[in-house]
Amino acid sequence: MKNFELGLEQQEKFGRNVEILIKFMRHGERGKDSQLLDLGRDITKRKAGESGIKRDDFDAVKAIGSNAAPIKEDIKMGRALETADIYATEIVGDEKFKTRVNNILSYETLVSPRPYNHTEIYNKNLPDNFNELVDTEKIVAAKKAQMATVNYLIGLSTPEALQYKKEIAGSFACIVKHYQEMAKKLNSGSKVLLPAGTHGGTMEFLLQQALVVRDGDKKKIGFNDIKEIGGEFDPSDSYNVDIQTDDKGEFKEFKVNFDNQDRPQKEMSLDMDKINELVEFYQTLHDLK
User: Strands 19-26, 191-198: parallel, antiparallel or unpaired by DSSP?
Assistant: First the structure.
């Protein structure tokens, strides 16, 4: 009986009433050279301040993300990882856990050939004098270029394009699945915030394939038009996947919400059957099984 009680005590010690909030973030405003602009750093800091998240809301804050080139040499970070690091720093300062590269969030680790030239289309839709524009003009010009680029990819329906987009969705699904498993290992009552830096033209596809939207008795999985989620993601924009367990260690629905209040604020979550399908697809494609 004593060993049985000890086993129950150990079970109760881990994985109960745990929350891991993954904040998938597009990197801040960048220039034509793909480096993060000071404007992008400032906007990310402002968004962190406006988030309402306080230092004591989480037991741990840890930034992860893509370290796609070019790398800023003095801090050894690419634009996406640096954006996540800035956000974490603004929330908890030096109390943040060490920022870690997680290149599953990088387009550079995809094995499916890219069915379009992202940089060429993006830069083609920027004005020639982009670097000379004032900050407010840069924001408008960059949004127009990103919208044209993302919409181009979403509209592609060749077998190559469909595989490419499913692989991207699978990479994000792997992040969700990893932290689902991690939640069972954390001390009960733990709360963790994970700013996860990534890229526009990638972060949309997990939602495009696995987002569940409820409207009364109606339920829809995924979307065909990016307007259904309020358009493509702006620099420093984000969405949240909230992984929670209850007091028995069972998982609640993985709620999804947007920081930008102009986006839909309906009841949203991830379809876990679809997440598991995407993880299996990604792992098979990468020979990880």
Answer: parallel
Mean pLDDT within 190-207: 96
Kindly state whether residue 16 falls inside one of the protein's structural domains. yes
| Terminal-residue alpha carbon distance, the chain | 40
Assess if residue 137 is contained within a domain.
no
| CATH number of the domain residue 268 falls in | 3.40.50
Residues 9-63 pLDDT 10s: 556 799 999 999 999 999 999 988 899 999 999 999 999 999 999 999 999 999 9
Q: Note the helical H segments in the chain.
A: 2-13, 38-50, 79-92, 118-124, 135-155, 159-183, 204-210, 272-285
For 222, the token pair is 């995924």
* Residue type for position 285: L
Q: Is the pLDDT of residue 192 over 70?
A: yes
The single residue listed with the structure tokens 């603004």 is: 90
The answer to whether residue 99 sits within a structural domain is yes
Range of the domain at 105: 2-118+152-285
- What is the rounded distance in angstroms from the CA atom of residue 42 to the CA atom of residue 195? 16
Measure Cα distances from 277 to 94, 154, 274 in Å. 38, 20, 5
Smallest CA-to-CA distance from 105 within 164, 173, 45, 166 is with 173
Which of 251, 129, 108 is CA-nearest to residue 179? 251
Would you say 46 and 140 are in contact if contact means Cβ atoms under 8 Å apart? no
Q: Dihedral angle at the C-alpha atoms of 153, 159, 160, 166, nearest 10 degrees?
A: 70
